[in-house]
Design goal:
Layout (H helix, E strand, L loop, with lengths): L2 H7 L13 H12 L11 E5 L2 H7 L7 H5 L2 E8 L4 H24 L3 E6 L3 H8 L5 E10 L17 H4 L6
Antiparallel strand pairs: 1-2, 2-4, 3-4
Helix pairs in contact: 1-5, 2-5
């Protein structure tokens, strides 16, 4: 798949087939995350990959909207350091957003669907994933092959029109 095709085909997928994702494809997706640009090249992130069905079931309980995690073939948890510094917190969140999109586009390129989930129960996330106390789990990215339809270019996305969101030169 070409980059533009991956961008225009990517959608949130929350229902997956039982088909596992190969280690080679998971590694490629994780490599895309690792190569993501980062503010001052801090790379203030770690990625915890889960494929165990019981572990995915536990992870699906960290937020009321994370049920799709239990059905995924794999889920990547984005873990980052806690910080009291506001600039650092904002920088980390921006970088994690970029890593999220890298993961999702790399997955789409392979025909793998994805959907993010928030994490509100940090204690459950920490018990399930084993990350240190000075870290938090920011997001979960569930991955799997779509059960309803393959990833194909979305001709009419439900997005605001380009002319409504683009201001050239000034507002």
């Amino acid at each position: 798949m070409e980059t533009w095709q991956a961008i225009t085909s990517r959608r949130n997928v929350r229902n997956y087939t039982d088909r596992p994702i190969t280690d080679e494809d998971l590694t490629r997706i994780l490599e895309a995350a690792r190569r993501t640009p980062s503010s001052m090249n801090q790379q203030a992130w770690d990625f915890v990959v889960c494929t165990d069905r019981d572990q995915l079931g536990e992870l699906s309980k960290v937020w009321r909207g994370a049920g799709h995690v239990a059905r995924s073939a794999a889920t990547i948890a984005l873990v980052a350091p806690r910080s009291d510094d506001e600039w650092m917190r904002e920088s980390i969140q921006y970088d994690l957003g970029q890593a999220t999109m890298s993961i999702m586009l790399a997955a789409a390129d392979l025909g793998i669907g994805s959907a993010h989930a928030a994490v509100t129960d940090q204690d459950l996330a920490r018990r399930t994933l084993g990350f240190p106390d000075d870290r938090f789990c920011a997001w979960l990215i569930a991955l799997g092959y779509p059960s309803d339809r393959p990833l194909i270019q979305i001709k009419r996305p439900t997005r605001r029109p380009l002319d409504d969101v683009v201001h050239r030169g000034r507002w």
